[in-house]
Write a structure and sequence with these properties.
By secondary structure, the chain is α/β, with parallel strands linked by helices. The protein contains twelve helices and seven strands. It folds into two domains: 138 residues, 3-Layer(aba) Sandwich (Rossmann fold); 94 residues, no CATH class. Strands 3-2-1-4-5-7-6 form a seven-stranded mixed beta sheet, with helices on both faces. Helix 6 packs across helix 12. The two termini are 39 Å apart.
Length: 277
């Protein structure tokens, strides 16, 4: 047996640049997902929305070289980073597809395993993506997904709604609810979509994690909050109130944090396991 060298140059810039492959956000979801996978030799798998390579590369390494894993994602910058990581990790049993999942360039009935680590939340046409997965899946194909639930960061949204009420614009709280429903549909809606495409739910695991901030400024300055959340929060506020509401929300969070030794937002999520009938 030929072993890949385990000697690494820890001052190698490329190695260091790839060391953060699992973020605080994606790891809790992904760890649960990876625990649900049925690991078998000689299978073909697909990871939808792999971002910067997780769990795509981890899944490929765990399945081993007898299996082959496709990854599909339209984010070109993330694709390039994943290619770099794959080379650094010596992962060769993968093919990366830079594309949206609404049209998957894989032949009918050829995939044994599909995973998506909080990736289906971000597709443009979820029914079409699930239909495409139904097309490429073999009978018995396992499909494991994770998704954060509608109660995600409810603590923050409650503060926003309180600010709306105090400013006399409580009717705009409905925009917050619509935003949550669009980004994080109910589990029952997801299950119905899978049912329509001959996927039967065989397992469900719920879990959660949290972020705690010293104050509102820390929350608003946090890199991931700015990257993934703040823009959509601001979009829920009427134009003429955006600045005043966000300033008020920051102040309210400061007050809560002072009373409770920090302001905590919780991220409940679910891992769903399906089988193609």
């Amino acid at each position: 047996m030929n072993f890949i060298s385990s000697k690494f140059d820890f001052n190698n810039e490329r190695l260091v640049s790839c060391y953060d492959e699992v973020s605080l956000w994606s790891a809790p979801f992904g760890n649960v997902l990876l625990e649900r996978v049925d690991y078998k030799r000689g299978i073909r798998a697909l990871d939808i929305g792999f971002g910067t390579g997780y769990p795509l590369l981890e899944l490929a390494m765990r399945l081993g070289t007898s299996s082959f894993v496709y990854g599909i994602d339209p984010w070109s910058g993330a694709v390039k980073r994943t290619v770099c990581k794959a080379a650094q990790y010596s992962v060769e049993n993968i093919e990366i597809i830079e594309s949206s999942a609404e049209e998957i360039p894989i032949e009918d009935g050829s995939i044994d395993l599909i995973v998506s680590n909080n990736g289906l939340n971000n597709v443009s046409d979820l029914p079409k993506v699930i239909a495409e997965c139904g097309r490429i899946a073999k009978t018995g194909c396992q499909f494991v997904i994770t998704m954060n639930l509608p109660e995600t960061m409810l603590e923050f949204y409650d503060v926003m709604k309180a600010s709306f009420r105090e400013m006399g614009i409580a009717e705009y709280s409905a925009d917050i609810d619509r935003h949550i429903q669009k980004k994080r549909p109910a589990v029952s809606e997801i299950v119905q979509l899978f049912d329509k495409n001959d996927f039967s739910k065989t397992g469900e695991v719920t879990d959660s994690f949290s972020y705690t901030f010293a104050d509102g400024t820390a929350l608003f300055n946090h890199y991931f909050m700015r990257l993934a959340f703040i823009e959509s929060w601001v979009a829920c506020i009427p134009e003429e109130y955006k600045k005043i509401v966000m300033n008020d929300v920051e102040k309210k969070i400061d007050e809560i944090a002072a009373e409770q030794n920090g302001f905590t937002v919780n991220v409940p999520f679910v891992c769903l396991d399906f089988r193609k009938m």
